[in-house]
From TrEMBL:
Residues 18-32 have a biased composition (Basic and acidic residues). Residues 171-268, 470-566 form the Fibronectin type-III domain. GO terms for cellular component: external side of plasma membrane. This is Leptin receptor-like isoform X1. Signal peptide: none annotated.
Length: 669
């Protein structure tokens, strides 16, 4: 018989009891005389009785017998249970069951000895007890054999039943590589792999899961053959999941449970969670609502965690009740974007989009000494890209064309260490020093689980990106011809030519911001601008850049102030008037001189200011210099003296001046 084996055993009414009423034992016995079956058994199995001669249990006892191998394939277990009411079982008294395991070879030989009148088997396992009870025999783990089962009830003995015991199957190793995916049909699929080098043949599986990791209440699901299972899990709970496997033997010999796999579902999931798109390409993503109280028909999509950047509804639509589909084109100037969808509130989960080949503007500036190059860029959302480069001793157009043909050109530089982030401006600056000439290929790189993401490369030559030093020794002169002449000393690098320009403005107390007038660049060391007033002071600055127009303008030089180019000293001093105000208490008089505005247009000189000279009748002469003004005040001690006002510039003072005599007037009576 094959296992598991189940049958009904019916025995005639007993004529005597083997033991006293209520006596029960489970002790295995090896007494050969107790196991000798009678020549004419009074018990029969239903499966071995023909329909024409069914067993007649009237006045007798019928029992259910089940023999099976335990789940660890260590024991053969036979269970006996009463087929009738409890009173029938009690009347049956003590039963005995004999289990004898022998190899196939021993069994065949014993059959021959039995025919010769010899005792067939040794050392059976015998159990005695009242029904219901169970009896077991230990299995041999290495060979196939048969077990002879004999049941006796009082004087009635059943025919022997031969149960074929197959060899113990190999216990498989537990499954490996547990993972899970979600489908656009809102299915959550758990999948796994069979262990490597598994030779147990076809397998079946059991999956258990529980949302409580401390005191798990396992829910077990049978999985026939296919190493995958669709799960229905609640969102916002952490599930622990394990899988075990067995061959197709009965009973199954299960492997140990696999390593634990954990699944946490947000109320919203994304398919795919992360995607890499080429610059300029559309991407399609799916939003799966694990909270089934939500509905995809009311979904809203948002870009870059900004509620003000909700996407147009024409870009997305519900695929089914719990899945929303969107197709859109990410920005070509960002390497990274974030997508979210919602029906009620925004959730923590998000999908990530990396853009391969995005155009990120990298600004490079070579120092005025052409010994270092500083490159900077503005970081994109939530990324911190690193700069990478290759260098080749080739013109950039040649390097680019050869790379487009698939050639590997030049040398790869190490990850650059001298980079500084500027959090306030979201910029990063890196310095290349020492600096190589010819062509650099630069790009930005962002790490991701899908591999490094690279921006569109740029090709540049450091000498095309020079920011020279500011010019020095700047001088500005206004001439009588009505021009402002500016000269400078340009920087020495780059050595293959510079162009420079200057700007000027007239300071004003009225304007808050200066109004600069910028002149066109020239390749000389000087330039001129027409001005309306040669005597006015102008603020002047100069700067330079490469003659090819590549690179950057230098910083403006320090400001200088223009000076007029006078041909001679002023011709005369200003005319003036006086106002006297006596102070009788101090015996002094306050004198205010009202000065004439000198008209000097169409002349070849300027007046820088005035000199006031005091000459008493006796004593030394005193001179005070002042800027151009319309009045001047001083204290007079009423001692007679002569006051003269001269006009001056850098070439001297006027000789033709007006004198005024101050003397005390007698009081009128």
């Amino acid at each position: 018989m094959e296992l598991p084996w189940q049958d009904e055993l019916c025995c005639d009414s007993p004529s005597a009891h083997l033991t006293k009423e209520g006596e029960s034992t489970h002790t295995p016995e090896t007494n050969r005389s107790d196991s000798n079956p009678p020549h004419h058994p009074l018990c029969s199995f239903r499966s071995s009785t023909t329909r024409s001669h069914p067993p007649d249990p009237s006045g007798g006892t019928c029992l259910d017998i089940l023999c099976k191998i335990d789940e660890n394939w260590e024991n053969l277990i036979c269970e006996l249970q009463s087929h009738g009411p409890p009173s029938t079982t009690k009347a049956a008294g003590v039963m005995a069951i004999s289990l004898q395991s022998v190899s196939i070879f021993t069994f065949v030989r014993s059959k021959k000895e039995e025919n010769d009148g010899n005792t067939p088997y040794d050392n059976p396992v015998i159990c005695k007890a009242e029904v219901p009870f169970m009896c077991s025999v230990v299995l041999d783990a290495t060979t196939s054999f048969v077990t002879v089962v004999t049941v006796s009830l009082n004087d009635a003995i059943s025919p022997s039943v031969l149960l074929r015991i197959p060899p113990r199957p190999v216990r498989p190793s537990p499954p490996v590589n547990l993972s899970h995916i979600q489908t656009i049909k809102a299915e959550l699929i758990l999948q796994w792999d069979d262990p490597p080098h598994s030779d147990t043949g076809r397998l079946r599986y059991e999956v258990r899961h529980s949302p409580n990791t401390t005191h798990p209440a396992w829910q077990v699901v049978s999985v026939p053959e296919e190493p995958r299972l669709s799960l229905e899990l609640k969102p916002e709970l952490t599930y622990t999941i394990q899988v075990r496997s067995s061959g197709l033997d009965k009973p199954p010999l299960w492997s140990e449970w696999s390593e634990r796999h954990h699944i946490y579902l947000y109320s919203v999931s994304y398919i795919p969670q992360t995607v890499v798109a080429r610059s300029g390409e559309n991407v399609t993503m799916y939003c799966v609502f694990n909270d089934h109280s939500m509905n995809a028909s009311t979904a809203t999509w948002m870009l870059n965690l900004n509620p003000n950047q909700t996407l147009n509804r024409s870009l997305y639509h519900p695929l089914n009740q719990w899945v929303s589909k969107i197709t859109f084109r990410p920005s070509e100037t960002q390497m990274y974007a974030v997508l979210q969808c919602k029906t009620k509130n925004w959730t923590q989960a998000q999908s990530r989009i990396y853009v391969e080949g995005a155009y990120i503007k990298i600004n490079c500036e070579t120092s005025g000494d052409i010994d270092a190059m500083e490159c900077s860029w503005t970081n994109t959302l939530y990324t911190n890209p690193k700069i990478r480069y290759r260098w080749a001793d080739l013109p950039c157009d040649v390097m680019e064309k050869r790379e487009q043909r698939g050639e590997e050109v030049g040398q790869t530089g190490p990850p650059w260490p001298s980079c500084l982030p500027f959090l306030r401006t979201m910029k990063t600056k890196c310095t290349f020093q020492p600096l190589r000439m010819n062509c650099y290929k630069l790009w930005l790189e962002v790490p991701s689980l899908l591999g490094p993401i690279r921006s569109k490369p740029i090709y540049l030559t450091p000498t095309d990106h020079v920011k020279p030093h500011a010019p020095t020794n700047v001088k500005a002169v206004t001439r009588s011809s009505g021009v402002l002449n500016v000269t400078w000393e340009p920087p020495s690098l780059p050595s293959d030519g510079l162009q420079c320009q200057f700007r000027y403005q007239a300071p004003s107390a009225v304007r808050a911001q200066p109004e600069w007038k910028v002149q066109s660049p020239v390749r000389e060391r000087w330039a001129e601008a027409v001005v309306s007033d040669m005597c006015r002071v102008y603020v002047v600055q100069a700067r330079c850049m490469h003659t090819k127009g590549t690179g950057y303008w230098s910083e403006w030089s320090d400001s200088v102030y223009s000076t007029p180019q006078n041909s001679r000293a002023p011709e005369r001093g200003p005319d003036f008037w006086r106002i006297l105000q006596d102070d009788p208490h101090r015996n002094q008089t306050n004198v205010t001189l009202l000065l004439e505005h000198l008209q000097i247009s169409m002349r070849s000189y300027c007046v820088d200011g005035f000199i006031v000279q005091y000459q008493p009748l006796s004593g030394s002469v005193r001179r005070e210099q002042m800027e151009l003004a319309s009045s001047y005040s001083f204290q007079w001690n009423q001692v007679p003296q002569t006051v003269t006002v001269e006009a001056y510039n850098n070439l001297g003072s006027s000789a033709n001046n007006i004198n005024m005599t101050l003397e005390k007037q007698p009081k009128r009576e």
